[in-house]
Automatic annotation (TrEMBL), chain A:
<dbReference type="InterPro" id="IPR003439">
    <property type="entry name" value="ABC_transporter-like_ATP-bd"/>
</dbReference>
<protein>
    <submittedName>
        <fullName>ABC transporter</fullName>
    </submittedName>
</protein>
<dbReference type="InterPro" id="IPR027417">
    <property type="entry name" value="P-loop_NTPase"/>
</dbReference>
<dbReference type="InterPro" id="IPR017871">
    <property type="entry name" value="ABC_transporter-like_CS"/>
</dbReference>
<dbReference type="InterPro" id="IPR003593">
    <property type="entry name" value="AAA+_ATPase"/>
</dbReference>
<keyword id="KW-0067">ATP-binding</keyword>
<dbReference type="GO" id="GO:0016887">
    <property type="term" value="F:ATP hydrolysis activity"/>
</dbReference>
<feature type="domain" description="ABC transporter">
    <location>
        <begin position="278"/>
        <end position="522"/>
    </location>
</feature>
<keyword id="KW-0547">Nucleotide-binding</keyword>
UniProtKB/TrEMBL annotation, chain B:
<feature type="transmembrane region" description="Helical">
    <location>
        <begin position="315"/>
        <end position="334"/>
    </location>
</feature>
<feature type="transmembrane region" description="Helical">
    <location>
        <begin position="116"/>
        <end position="137"/>
    </location>
</feature>
<feature type="transmembrane region" description="Helical">
    <location>
        <begin position="232"/>
        <end position="255"/>
    </location>
</feature>
<feature type="transmembrane region" description="Helical">
    <location>
        <begin position="63"/>
        <end position="81"/>
    </location>
</feature>
<feature type="transmembrane region" description="Helical">
    <location>
        <begin position="21"/>
        <end position="43"/>
    </location>
</feature>
<dbReference type="InterPro" id="IPR001851">
    <property type="entry name" value="ABC_transp_permease"/>
</dbReference>
<dbReference type="GO" id="GO:0022857">
    <property type="term" value="F:transmembrane transporter activity"/>
</dbReference>
<keyword id="KW-1003">Cell membrane</keyword>
<feature type="transmembrane region" description="Helical">
    <location>
        <begin position="149"/>
        <end position="169"/>
    </location>
</feature>
Length: 527, 347
C-alpha cells in the first residue's frame, strides 16, 4: 500500500512541517494465532500533535495491534516504522526506549509504595542513593512539567482510580514517551476525572506528543480525538479525520451495519401488581476491610420494573449488589426475600429463590477462567436435570448446554471445552448475562453490564434486560452511564457515599437533578 | 522479520505426547553419554536394564510391585493438585496407613476374609486421620497445607521406626528392625504380584470416572479454580477442601496398607521408600488426566528398577535420584516446547 492510498480520507495534518515523518507508521501488519487472524494488513500513520482513536468491536484486534506496537508480540508480517526508520521491538523495553509508552486498562503499580516510589521504580534516572525527600521533589517537578496533579507522598493503594491513572501516565511520560497509548482509559473514571484526563491529554498533544486511545465510547472519541481508525475482524476498515465523520458512520463501519441505541424500551405489558420480591430495610454494610460502605439503605424492588442505580463509582455499589444477592450479610437492618426475612448471607438461598447476578468483575467472581466454557456455562444449573442431579454430573450435557447458551446470544464458540479465558471479554459477558437471566425468575442484579461491550452487544444486552422486565423480573441496573439508566429505568435510585439519596420515578428524573444528587446534595436541595 | 512461532494456550494431547517422547529420548541420551564418559558401555548396561525390567518375568513382576504403591500415592497427590491443593504429606499418610493395617494384621486375629477389608478400612482411615488437622487448618483458617503435611511426614517416619524397633519389634527372630510377619497378607496372583496391583488400577479408574461424572467432582473443580466464583454460585468451599484432602490422605493410606500387606508383609522403618514424594512426580507427569497415572507410575517404576540394576554394577545409588531429576526436567522442557507452534500463514 503506498503513501497516497493510505492517506486517503485522512491527509497529513496541515500544520506539520514538510518532511516531518509520522511518529509511528504501521505498514501491512499481520498477526496470527492458531485458527484466528488477529490482525491482517493493518496500515496506519500516527502523527505528532494528534490524538488518534482506535475503534472496533470486542475482539476486532485493537489490543493485539497495540501489543505488537509495544513489543509484547512480534508481528508475523509487515513493518513498524518509528520516525521514518524501520524498527523491531524484541521486548517492551525496546518500545519504551523508542518513545512508545502504554497505559494499560489494569494499572501496573505497586499499591503499597508511594506515588514517588512508583514513579522511580525501574527507571535508569533514579538516583543511586534514595531519599524520600528527593524523590518526592523529583515527582513534584515531573508533575508540574506534564501538568498532571499528583500527591507524591500518598500510598498508591489509597488513591482513586483516576489518581492512579495519572501516576501511570506520568510514569510513562517521564520515561520520555512521545507516543502515549491508552487502553480504555475512561472505563474506570468518574465524569470529573474524565474531564481532567482529557485536559492532560490535550496539553500533551499541544506540546507535540502523539496519543493513541482505544475506546468504545463514541461521544468521547468525537470530543477528544483528531483522527479515528476503525478495525473490523482484524483488518483496518478506514481512517478518518474526526471532524469529517459522524458517530453513525463510525458505528456502521465498526460493525458493518448501522446500529443506534434506543433511548427508551417501551414495555410490552402492564406492570403486574405483586408483593415486592426483595426489600431492604435500614441496611448498613461494611466491606471486607471493615469500612462502612452502605448506611441506612431502605429499598423495595418491584416486580416487572427496572430500577436504575446511579452514582459515581465507589459509592457503595458493589456492597449493595452483594447484599441484594446474598453474598454479604448486612451489619444492621434486615433483608426480606419474598416476604421472608433472611438471617444469613447465603448466595445459594438467593439463587434458588430466582435471584440472578451479573457481577461487576465477571472474571474474578462469576467465572472460573481456567475451566472450560461448558463448566462455566452450567455454574447455575449444574445440579438440575439434564446436566446433573443429587450426585451425578454429565459433561456431555454441559457441553450441549453451553452450545445452547452461546447460540442464543450469538457467540461463536471454537469449542465448548476450551478454557473460558480464551473468549473475548464481550463474549464472556454475554454468556454470563444469558446464564443469569435464565435463573432470574424474580430478581436480576446487573452491575455495569455494558462495561467492555461494543455498541452492538450493548444493544443486545439492553434488549435482554427489557425482556426480563416484561417477564415480571425486578431488574436492578447499576451503571455509570446516565443515558443507559434513563433509557431503561422505571425508577432511578441515587447512591452517594453509601447513602441512598433518593428514589425517583423516571418521569420526574432529569440529568441535572440526578447529577446534583450524585454529588451529595439532598433531594430538597436538588429539586 | 521475526519468529513465526506462537505459544498455544491450549496444547493438544498429541503435541504433548510427541514432546514427551522426545524428552525421554533426550534424557536417555544424556544418561548414555554420562555412562560412556564413566568408562561403562551404555549398550551393555542398556541390555542389562532391559533384561531385568521388561525383558524377563522376574523384571515384569518387579515393575508391577513398584507400580502398585506409586499409582495410589500418585492418585493421592493428583486429586489435590486437580483443585489446587498440594498434599506433600502422602509419605506420612502412607506410613500411617501401613501402621494401622499392621495393627489389624497382627493383633485382631480376624479370619482373612474379614481381616483384609478391615485392613483396607483401617489403612484409609489412618491416612485420613493423619491429614485431618492440616486439612481443617487449610479449609477454615487458610494455613498452607504444603508446610503442615510435609512436616507430619517426619513425625510419621520416626513413629514407625519407634514401633518397629520398640513395642512391636519381632521378638521371635530377634531381627530388631521390623515387626513379625503379618498373620494375614494379600494373596499373590502372578508370581510375587499380589491383589494390590489390580486394586490400585481399579482405584485409579474408578476415581477418574467418579470425579468426571459426579456433582462432587464438578463442585470441587469450581472451588479449586476460583473460590470466589464458587461462593457466588452457592458452593461452600471449606467443606469441599476438607473432603478432597481427606480423600487424598485416604488414598495414600491405602497405598501404605497395600505395600505392607502385599509386598513387605511386615512393618519396618523406611517402608514408605519415598513413594509419597514420588507420587508428586507421578501426579505431575499425569497432568490433567487421572488414567495417565497408570503409565506415569509405570515410567517411575521403570526408573526405580533401573536404579537397582545400575547399583548391582557398582554405580552409585544416587544415580536413581539424578535420573529421576533429569527426566522430570526433560519432560517439563518437553511440555513447554510442545506449546510452541509454527503459525500457518493464510496468504
Amino acid at each position: 500500500m503506498d503513501e497516497h492510498e493510505r492517506s486517503e480520507g485522512a491527509p497529513r495534518p496541515l500544520n506539520l512541517a514538510p518532511g516531518t515523518p509520522p511518529v509511528l507508521t504501521l505498514s501491512g501488519i499481520c498477526k496470527y494465532f492458531p485458527g484466528v487472524i488477529a490482525n491482517e494488513d493493518v496500515s496506519l500513520d500516527v502523527f505528532p500533535g494528534q490524538i488518534h482513536a482506535l475503534l472496533g468491536e470486542n475482539g476486532a484486534g485493537k489490543s493485539t495491534l497495540m501489543n505488537v506496537v509495544t513489543g509484547l508480540y512480534q508481528p508475523d508480517g509487515g513493518e513498524i516504522i518509528v520516525d521514518g526508520y524501520g524498527v523491531t521491538f524484541a521486548a517492551p523495553d525496546a518500545a519504551i526506549a523508542a518513545g512508545i509508552g502504554m497505559v494499560h486498562q489494569h494499572f501496573k503499580l505497586v499499591s503499597r509504595f508511594t506515588v514517588a516510589e512508583n514513579l522511580h521504580l525501574g527507571w535508569s534516572e533514579t538516583p543511586r542513593r534514595l531519599s524520600a525527600r528527593q524523590i518526592e521533589a523529583n515527582a513534584r517537578t515531573l508533575s508540574e512539567k506534564f501538568g498532571l496533579a499528583i500527591r507524591p507522598e500518598a500510598v498508591v493503594g489509597t488513591l482513586s482510580a483516576g489518581e492512579q491513572q495519572r501516576v501511570e501516565i506520568l510514569r510513562v511520560l517521564s520515561r520520555g514517551a512521545r507516543l502515549l497509548i491508552l487502553d480504555e482509559p475512561t472505563a474506570v473514571l468518574s465524569p470529573v476525572e474524565v474531564g481532567e484526563l482529557f485536559i492532560a491529554l490535550r496539553r500533551f498533544r499541544d506540546g507535540g506528543g502523539a496519543v493513541i486511545i482505544i475506546s468504545h465510547k463514541l461521544d468521547e472519541i468525537m470530543a477528544l480525538t483528531d483522527r479515528v481508525s476503525v478495525l473490523r475482524h482484524g483488518r483496518l476498515v478506514g481512517t478518518h479525520l474526526t471532524a469529517s465523520t459522524t458517530p453513525a458512520l463510525l458505528v456502521a463501519e465498526m460493525i458493518g451495519r448501522p446500529v443506534t441505541l434506543a433511548t427508551s424500551y417501551p414495555r410490552g405489558n402492564e406492570v403486574p401488581v405483586t408483593p415486592s420480591p426483595l426489600v431492604l430495610e435500614e441496611v448498613t454494610a461494611r466491606d471486607d476491610g471493615g469500612i462502612i460502605r452502605l448506611e441506612g439503605v431502605t429499598l423495595s424492588l418491584r416486580a416487572g420494573e427496572i430500577l436504575g442505580v446511579a452514582g459515581v463509582t465507589g459509592n457503595g455499589q458493589p456492597e449493595l449488589a452483594e447484599v441484594l444477592t446474598g453474598l454479604r450479610a448486612p451489619d444492621q437492618g434486615s433483608v426480606a426475600l419474598d416476604g421472608v426475612a433472611v438471617k444469613q448471607a447465603d448466595p445459594a438461598v438467593f439463587a434458588r429463590a430466582g435471584v440472578g447476578h451479573v457481577p461487576e468483575d465477571r472474571l474474578r467472581r462469576a467465572l472460573a477462567p481456567s475451566l472450560s466454557v461448558a463448566e462455566n456455562a452450567v455454574l447455575r444449573e449444574y445440579a438440575q436435570a439434564p446436566i446433573g442431579g443429587r450426585f451425578g454430573f454429565s459433561i456431555v450435557r454441559a457441553r450441549e448446554f453451553a452450545q445452547l447458551l452461546a447460540d442464543k446470544v450469538g457467540v461463536k464458540l471454537p469449542g465448548a471445552m476450551m478454557p473460558i479465558r480464551g473468549l473475548s471479554g464481550g463474549n464472556q459477558q454475554r454468556l454470563v448475562l444469558e446464564r443469569e437471566i435464565r435463573i432470574a425468575s424474580r430478581v436480576l442484579v446487573a452491575s455495569y453490564p455494558s462495561r467492555g461491550l461494543d455498541i452492538g452487544a450493548i444493544a443486545a444486552m439492553r434488549e435482554m434486560l427489557a425482556k426480563a422486565r416484561d417477564a415480571g423480573v425486578a431488574v436492578v441496573l447499576m451503571s455509570e452511564d446516565l443515558d443507559e439508566i434513563f433509557a431503561l429505568s422505571d425508577r432511578v435510585a441515587v447512591l452517594c457515599a453509601g447513602r441512598l439519596m433518593a428514589v425517583i420515578d423516571r418521569c420526574d428524573a432529569d440529568r441535572d437533578r440526578i447529577g446534583a444528587l450524585m454529588s451529595g446534595r439532598t433531594q430538597a436541595e436538588a429539586a | 522479520m521475526s519468529s513465526s512461532r506462537t505459544r498455544l494456550t491450549v496444547v493438544p494431547t498429541q503435541r504433548i505426547l510427541v514432546g514427551r517422547g522426545l524428552a525421554l529420548l533426550a534424557a536417555l541420551l544424556i544418561v548414555a553419554v554420562t555412562l560412556a564418559a564413566m568408562g561403562r558401555s551404555p549398550i551393555t548396561l542398556f541390555g542389562l536394564v532391559m533384561h531385568s525390567t521388561v525383558g524377563s518375568r522376574f523384571g515384569l513382576e518387579d515393575l508391577a510391585l513398584f507400580m502398585t504403591p506409586l499409582m495410589l500415592t500418585g492418585a493421592a497427590v493428583w486429586v489435590g493438585i486437580r483443585v489446587n491443593l498440594w498434599n506433600i504429606g502422602a509419605e506420612g499418610q502412607f506410613y500411617a496407613g501401613a501402621t494401622a493395617a499392621t495393627a489389624v494384621g497382627l493383633f485382631t486375629g480376624l479370619p482373612p476374609a474379614l481381616a483384609i477389608p478391615a485392613m483396607i478400612v483401617a489403612g484409609m482411615a489412618a491416612g485420613m486421620a493423619w491429614i485431618f488437622v492440616p486439612a481443617v487448618a487449610r479449609a477454615w483458617l487458610g494455613v498452607s497445607e504444603i508446610v503442615t503435611t510435609l512436616l507430619l511426614n517426619f513425625v510419621a517416619s520416626l513413629l514407625v521406626y519407634y514401633l518397629a524397633t520398640g513395642p512391636w519389634a519381632d521378638r521371635v527372630t530377634g531381627a530388631l528392625a521390623s515387626t513379625e510377619r503379618l498373620h494375614v497378607i494379600l494373596p499373590d496372583i502372578w508370581g510375587v504380584v499380589h491383589w494390590g496391583f489390580p486394586l490400585a488400577v481399579f482405584t485409579v479408574v474408578v476415581l477418574g470416572v467418579l470425579l468426571a461424572r459426579s456433582r462432587f467432582g464438578y463442585e470441587t473443580a469450581i472451588a479449586g479454580a476460583n473460590p470466589e466464583a464458587a461462593r457466588y454460585a452457592g458452593i461452600s468451599v471449606a467443606p469441599r477442601v476438607l473432603a478432597v484432602l481427606l480423600l487424598s490422605g485416604g488414598l495414600a493410606g491405602l497405598a501404605g496398607m497395600v505395600e505392607v500387606a502385599g509386598t513387605v508383609h511386615r512393618l519396618q522403618g523406611g517402608i514408605a521408600n519415598n513413594y509419597g514424594y514420588l507420587g508428586i512426580v507421578v501426579a505431575l507427569l499425569a497432568r490433567g488426566s487421572c488414567l495417565s497415572l497408570i503409565p506415569a507410575a509405570l515410567l517411575m517404576a521403570f526408573i526405580l528398577d533401573t536404579g537397582i540394576v545400575l547399583q548391582t554394577t557398582q554405580i552409585s545409588a544416587s544415580a536413581v535420584l539424578a535420573i529421576t531429576g533429569l527426566l522430570v526436567l526433560a519432560i517439563a522442557v518437553g511440555d513447554e516446547l510442545a506449546a510452541y507452534a509454527r503459525v500457518k500463514k493464510t496468504s
